[in-house]
Amino acid sequence: MVDNVVRGERDPFSGKSFCTRKELKKFLSSPYTRAILLDSFWWIFHDRYQPKKELQNKLFDRIARNYARLLLNEPRSHYEEALLKRLPSLLSKCLYTSFCSCFPQSWFNTHEFKTDICNTMNLWIAGVYPCPQSYVYWDYSELDPERFRREELMSQRKRVVKGKIASHPACRSPEMVENCFNIYGKSPLIVYFLYNYSFLRQHGQDVLVARREKANIVPYPCLLQAGPIFPALSL
């Protein structure tokens, strides 16, 4: 599963990765990262399919401790800052390909499931929501290769019009709302760890600024309008 993420971790536009494959695989295969991934997998499994609050609390406790150890004890790397910055996204991809591999008869390529794992990882580690639909740019040919090949074959059989056609959601754009954002963003995992396992306590101050973000995203799936959309002109 780690190999799937390593092969698929490249910029969708330039085709380049933010670090070498060797360093990325080493980071994702380290004991602390693997422990975080494994416990996160079972936390999400129980949260979605077999809720067990007491067990989930124990899993969250271990995730927090291993994340703190990752920050404090992981061997330093030239790509350390870039790897930690992308950790929520990397873990989300690892979780997605793990669920696809462990339950091949189930369907996980849905907006609801991918949003859930992306939101959970980002909220735990960064304390904020990720960019909506960030999973659109994932390389599914690597994360779920078998299903990707089947879908490609099916789409080729159904394809009548050759070439790419731009499509747009046939609905109004979501409204923008004001939201408070802490520029010192606190990781819930670290806050939990400090509160329960350290003599240190959270000090300093919160600096909140208002930002505008979409209240909701375009419904999925939605009707699509093929081709360009021109504004209506009133005569």
Structure description:
By secondary structure, this protein is mainly α. It is 51% helix and 9% strand. The chain is built from ten helices and four strands; from the N terminus they run αααααααααββαββ. It has helices spanning 2-8, 21-28, 31-48, 53-73, 80-85, 87-102, 111-125, 140-143, 145-158, 188-197; strands at residues 167-169, 176-182, 208-214, 224-226. The strands form two sheets. Strands 1-4 form a two-stranded antiparallel sheet. A two-stranded antiparallel sheet has the order 2-3. Helix 4 (53-73) crosses helix 10 (188-197) and helix 6 (87-102) packs across helix 7 (111-125). The protein is globular, with a radius of gyration of 20 Å. It starts with a helix and ends in a 9-residue tail after the last strand. Residues 160-166 have low confidence and may be disordered.
Mean pLDDT reading: 79
> Uncertain spans, ≥5 residues at pLDDT below 50?
160-166
Which structural class should the secondary elements be placed in?
A: mainly alpha
Distance between the termini: 59 Å
The number of distinct β-strands equals 4
Biggest sheet: strands, sense, closure?
A: 2 strands, antiparallel
Number of helices: 10
What is the molecular shape? globular
SSE pattern, N- to C-terminal: HHHHHHHHHEEHEE
Strand order of the largest sheet: 1-4
Helicity, as a percent range: 40-55%
Q: Roughly how many Å is the radius of gyration?
A: 20 Å
Beta-strand level of the residues, as a percent range?
A: 5-15%
